[in-house]
Amino acid sequence: MAAHPHHGIVAILPCTDIEASTAFYARLGLSVLSDHGRYRILTDGKGWQLHLSSEGPPGWVVPGRNPDGLYVYVEDVDGVAERIGDLLLGGGPTHRPWGMYEVSVSDPDGTLVRIGWPSRPAG
Asked: What residues does each domain of the chain span?
């Protein structure tokens, strides 16, 4: 991690199986930056960063009842969708009414992950 990180915000995502979650997010283009066993920091080397934590007590995350979600902004929505085609929810990328071209997947713990880029001004 840089000595002086830029202003930003990073999600800490709970997971039940840190290996499965790491493998899932690797398909989105993230790799391990820092591994602390039950806590990992992933990055794409271009600005994305995600912290995974399996440190919580049993039942902390309940797949199928997970209310968490992430939105990943990336220009090459089609390229990412092609890499994860077997995981897509509801088909390929679509222009949405809120002005985004996006696709959705679910991570191993049921976290909704939307991948998109503005397709036109919202409103």
From this structure: 11-56+66-118
pTM of the model: 0.84
Please provide the DSSP assignment of the chain as one string: --SSPPS---EEEE-S-HHHHHHHHHHTT-EEEEE-SSEEEEE-SSS-EEEEE--SPTTSS-TTS---EEEEE-S-HHHHHHHTGGGEEEEEEEE-TTSEEEEEEE-TT--EEEEEEE-S---
pLDDT digits (tens, 9 = 90+) for 31-47: 999 999 999 999 999 88
Tens of pLDDT, residues 68-88: 899 999 999 999 999 998 999
- Asked if residue 48 lies in contact with residue 30, where contact means CB atoms within 8 angstroms, the answer is yes
* CATH class as words, domain 11-56+66-118: alpha beta
